[in-house]
Amino acid sequence: xxxVFSIVTFLFFVVLAFPATAQINWLTWxxxxxxxxxxxxxxxxxxxxxxxxxxxxxxxxxxxxxxxAAYINKNYYPVKFDAEIKTDINFKNKVxxxxxxxxxxxxxxxxxLLFGRFSYPTLVFLxxxxxxIQPIQGYQDPGSLDKIMKYFAEDYYKTTxxxxxxxxxxxxxxxxxxxxxx
Length: 182
Fold this sequence. Notes:
This protein is an alpha+beta fold and 182 residues long. It has a domain at 21-142: Glutaredoxin (3-Layer(aba) Sandwich). The chain is built from 7 helices and 8 strands. The protein has helices spanning 2-17, 29-38, 53-61, 66-75, 108-113, 142-153, 162-172, and strands spanning 42-48, 76-82, 89-91, 94-96, 98-101, 104-107, 122-126, 132-137. The strands form 3 sheets. Strands 2-1-7-8 form a 4-stranded mixed beta sheet, sandwiched between helices. A hairpin with a 5-residue loop joins strand 7 and strand 8 (132-137). The N and C termini lie far apart (62 Å). Keywords: Redox-active center, Signal. It holds the Pfam family Thioredox_DsbH. Residues 20-92 form the Spermatogenesis-associated protein 20-like TRX domain.
């Protein structure tokens, strides 16, 4: 009996020491497009490469943040897209392919979504009709991504300029406001 109690106690402390990380339910292009036909929603596309250090940092520091993961899963179809993948992708009834360039290359769909500006990581926001709303280049910490993803998911981008939205966001989320420098 004492042995069972010891094992249960040990497992309890192991669970506390290693909290479960939040998970974004990343979809393939095919899965996301199929779901979108049944229930239209915006897309958030994480355009990355295998060699990108900032992409890996964003995976750990930002995408595993529980509130970020929950919001993305609820409001978007999330797609993780390797910009150098060599397989064909059918997107909006067009087939996009890998293009060899020098020692490596790029995927035609990445080129289209990024408007030819290859920078990693880049988050691309698409509307329900799969049109690009806007690509956002560079690493985003959880606070920055929270503000950005709500701007698009909640349709502020349609009526509110970014600067005005930032002011509104900071009033609604005062803890997110960085301290002023003296």
